[in-house]
Amino acid sequence: MQILTTAAGLHAYTEQARQAGHRVGLVPTMGALHAGHLQLVQAARAECNEVIASIFVNPTQFNNAEDFRLYPRVPEADAALLAPAGCTALFVPSVAEMYSQTTVLRFDFGALERVMEGAHRPGHFSGVATVVSKLFHLACPHRAYFGQKDWQQVAIVKQLVADLSFDLEIVACPTIREADGLAMSSRNRRLDAPARAAAPLLYQVLQTAAAQVRRGVPPAQVQAIAEASIAQEPLFTVEYMAVADAQTLQPLTDYGAGRAVVLCLAAHLGGVRLIDNVVVEA
Ligand code: AMP
């Protein structure tokens, strides 16, 4: 596995791979890797002969300086996981390399980002779109792999690709969970023992809510029950619970025929912000 630290190095690497007729897959991450990330690498490996993972804790997508400071960074351990997973190159740029000048461009994804993560983390998706655009330009992948754990992020990135005519395909991979249901996340490392013990409640509440959606319980009621269930665990504070159209992400007041529903939950647990979602197919 080749380690690349400069934008020019990444560009040259993929240019050569493309000229050799290779299919290039890109897996953008912020590191502190777990099985959820490695699944993206494996999916890329199955479809591409060049698999480039990037590790970059992107400052412009953090609206909370403390969250950025405390974000886990374990580059050596990450590299040791990526090589055996089939990654052919790892891009680990510095902040100065990615942002050699202050970025003034801001993205606005309209209704897609007025809800959920976009509404609660102002500027987050503009930062995501900035860094993802840079990575797409530098790595010129045929395919880029993202996790459905960040459901809204996938929708935003697909919109970005469509609006800016990036010549690549976005592949969305399912959420990988711990045995007790907790969605894997780099931030889980920051949970202390009591918080970790309480954490599976998030997915349990989502599963209960999904069953209610299937039974036709109205969205407002599903939302209220979920919020009340989380509130029963004193370590948790709910940030939002959304019952939304899985494509448009807009909140639902009722269920239309043929419309998939996404249930998205964000909560704080012992100083750590966790998100999760479940999709109920129509
Ligand atoms: P992150 O390092 O958290 O920015 O995540 C990098 C990529 O991995 C994103 O596309 C995430 O959606 C994806 N990802 C993170 N956690 C999981 C998970 N538990 N299952 C599947 N994909 C994940």
Automatic annotation (TrEMBL):
SUPFAM superfamilies in alphabetical order: Nucleotidylyl transferase (SSF52374)
UniProt-listed Enzyme Commission number(s): 6.3.2.1
The keyword Ribonucleoprotein belongs to this UniProt entry's keyword annotation: no
Binding site for beta-alanine: Q61
Catalytic activity: (R)-pantoate + beta-alanine + ATP = (R)-pantothenate + AMP + diphosphate + H(+)
Pathway: Cofactor biosynthesis; (R)-pantothenate biosynthesis; (R)-pantothenate from (R)-pantoate and beta-alanine: step 1/1
Record-annotated membrane-spanning stretches: none
Xref: Gene3D superfamilies: HUPs, Pantoate-beta-alanine ligase, C-terminal domain
Keyword Transmembrane helix: no
This protein's UniProt keywords: ATP-binding, Cytoplasm, Ligase, Nucleotide-binding, Pantothenate biosynthesis
Residues the record lists as binding (R)-pantoate: Q61, Q153
Catalytic residues of the enzyme: H37
Protein residues bound to ATP: 30-37, 147-150, 176, 184-187
Source organism, top-level taxon: Bacteria
InterPro entries linked: Cyt_trans-like, Pantoate_ligase, Pantoate_ligase_C, Rossmann-like_a/b/a_fold
CDD domains named in the record: PanC (cd00560)
Family of this protein: Belongs to the pantothenate synthetase family.
Subunit structure as annotated in this protein's UniProt entry: Homodimer.
Misc. remarks from the entry: The reaction proceeds by a bi uni uni bi ping pong mechanism.
Protein name as annotated: Pantothenate synthetase
Organism: Hymenobacter frigidus
Gene this protein is translated from: panC
